[in-house]
Amino acid sequence: MAAIYNLYIINKSGGLIFYKDYGSAGRTDTNDSLRVASLWHSMYAISQQLSPVSGCSGIELLQAHTFDLHCFQSRTGTEFFIVSEPGTQHMEGLLKHIYELYTDFVLKNPFYEMEMPIRCELFDINLTREIQKDHVA
């Protein structure tokens, strides 16, 4: 069973709008999660500009000895990334499904303001269900 450590959602201007910790060994506080999101957004943007391949969409996977970072960027510029244990498979599909949950439960919520922090109970419930389903699978 692969462990998912953290989930981040970053708006198109680089602001952290959602963060969820799934019991990682080294818990991060709010300031650390904001720093990680800002740093990732900057690295992602720089990688798009420095890529020798035209039309590069940026970093999709960053592998380290102690974690993997999987990223999905929507057409609107919202970035979704998961920090998981090394070698975790099928995170691209999970990220796309999380994006679908985001569009269904956050963007269609009449009380949600674009680019603002996500505070939507239905999104939280369905996200938790999807993460648990992925852990079981």
Automatic annotation (TrEMBL):
Keywords: Endoplasmic reticulum, ER-Golgi transport, Golgi apparatus, Transport
Name of the molecule in the record: Trafficking protein particle complex subunit
Cellular component per GO, a single term: Golgi apparatus
Any one GO biological process: endoplasmic reticulum to Golgi vesicle-mediated transport
Subcellular location: Endoplasmic reticulum; Golgi apparatus, cis-Golgi network; Golgi apparatus
Provenance organism: Rubus argutus
UniProt subunit comment: Part of the multisubunit transport protein particle (TRAPP) complex.
InterPro entries: Longin-like_dom_sf (IPR011012), TRAPPC (IPR007233)
